[in-house]
Amino acid sequence: MSLLSEIEKSIDRAFRAWTQRAFGRERSDDLVILHRSILSEIENKVEVLARGKKVFPFGKVTVTIVGDTPRRREVLQAAFGERLQTDLISTLKSAHCEIPDGFSLELRVVESGFQPVEIEYTAKPDKREPPPPRELPPGKLVVVKGRAEQGEYPLEKPRINIGRLPEVTDSLQRVMRRNDIVFEDGVDEVSGTVSRKHAHILFERGEYLIFDDRSEFGTSVFRDGRSIEVLKGARRGEKLQPGDEIYLGRACLRFERDDPRP
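Given the sequence above, the corresponding structure tokens read:
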């Protein structure tokens, strides 16, 4: 049984009654389904600790919904803009779930996107003294296929975003993402297979890992004569080894790491 199912029923009833009055029965049915799916997705992030204690481990949730017409975006903003955070907090509190101080939910209604709904989670800030910055081992990505702003990119940050266009914005021209490795837009067919927010690389526990950010044409790693698919949107990335070729659609980067490892 869903952890919060009984509470969600009462939230559903109140939301349905309000949207029927505001937008009519047909639009209400669609909005209720969307409302329920968003709450259910976020609900799955609740953690149950020892002795049944429930905690929500994120300080901020960003919900991005695609509306393909101006009227659709207007309805989504009106339906969810003021209610979604309130309904989520009510749901979690009614289930006796601990919420971080200062928790917030940000709603973005955009004209287009790779998924109808995307939800991003930001961990609550750590009030303790931050650890000293990590020293990254020497590494770089070399452009093999496609046209990028540079021929090679040193890996100088724990997270490197890869995509087409330096910045990805929503319909209100708000920056949603900045890419560190940028393939040029509209120059050739190979570079055109790189999505605007295609993939990212993380340095974790002494390893570099590649993640696919739900790209259109996919991400794979070519190693020792075989291709390894990187699952779209997966939480677990693929570890990179020196000499790996990373295919972003048809574009390609070669991963090089200079530090010796056993």
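Residues 18 and 28 are 8 Å apart (CA to CA). Try to locate this feature in the token string yourself.
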